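[agent] plan:
  1. take the single chain provided in the ticket
  2. run structure prediction with default settings
  3. attach structure tokens to the ticket
  4. add a short note for the reviewer (M.T.)
[agent] executing step 1
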Amino acid sequence: MITTARSDGEGLQSPRSPPSSPFLLVSVTDPAKMGNGVQAYISYKVTTKTNFPEYQGPEKIVIRRYTDFVWLYDRLFDKYKGIFIPPLPEKNTVEKFRFSAEFIEMRRQALDTFVNRIASHHELQQSEDLRTFLQVDEQTMERARSQDTGIFKKKPTDLMQIFRDVQSKVTDVVLGKEKPVEESNPEYEKLKRYIFELEDHVAEAQKYAYRLVKRHRVCLIIVAELGQSLADFGKAVKLLGACEGDALGTAFSELGAKSEMLSIKLQREAHHLLMNFEEPLKDYVRAVQSIKGTIAERANAFRQQCELAETIKLKEIDLNKLRLMRSEKMLDAEHEYEELKADGQEATRRFETIVRLMNEEIVRFQDQKTQDMGRAFHEFAKGQARLANAIADAWRSLIPKLESLSVS
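[agent] step 2 finished; step 3 output follows
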């Protein structure tokens, strides 16, 4: 397996492998605004370091935009049925937010995670489309996007519509006699139940993580205003206390300075909470949606297999009738029958492959989720402890000075 590493130093796999081992290191950095007005977009520097023989040299740097990442996602989703394709961050169309420094950094981090999850996957890392994405120049990449037709134009929204159709009615019920074609498999039902429950739980956790970040920002505004007010008050009191050795004025100035310092720490912690707690949870909300798209593809493959099997049975009945009648149409019917059988066998193989891959993928997904969630909550706990200690230390250092003033 190719070794990969995240640009933030927390790779999905450790890059510390022997030099002779195959490795693929990818980073998404240096976001830059390109163009103006409605045509403006953000470009990213994508750096690849590898010793994989299919790649062009040990290092390659290309410039990519969000639509290039979408192209890669669509290609992989269409080609690798049954594999959970890592999710992309949403596209923000609100002008005042999509070019803010915070949004750009969140997008960069999410795109970095997206590419590295692909590069760490034992099958996706072999993709020709991934090599194209990581190596070709910008003009070639643009031509590849514009030349995509047919199935590669299908969007995730189309897949989710398929999923909704599958959930409600996979096939039309004719005159109330025909039953919907749905897979009844205990393991499959267990998988769907797990994904739906996970979606609810992660969405709920992400909602409260958002509230935590929002409250941190409210506290930030309050503390910042308090810090400035105390600093101004300290200056005034310092003038008042000048005739008494400046002790009172100095104490209040220090009080104001501590408050300003704490406002900066709170701002940093709010940003840390957003990037390392809320965003990972949001990423798993997106991941569940991507998995639901794969479930929709499985349901569609099962329906096609069943419909072909039914068509083959009907064709076999017709063929037997023609044989009894020694009809001149028998040869054409036999040819059609053999073609249908081949299609049916291919549909069965396709469905069985999807089932096998999904069984492997859910185990990998659960292992990765355990690691990522553990890291996110660990970062949350560390951040809260760090902030609480900073607040306690700041006020604790002032107590002796204030106490000396109160007893003097």
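[agent] step 4 note for reviewer: The longest strand covers residues 24-34.
[agent] ticket updated
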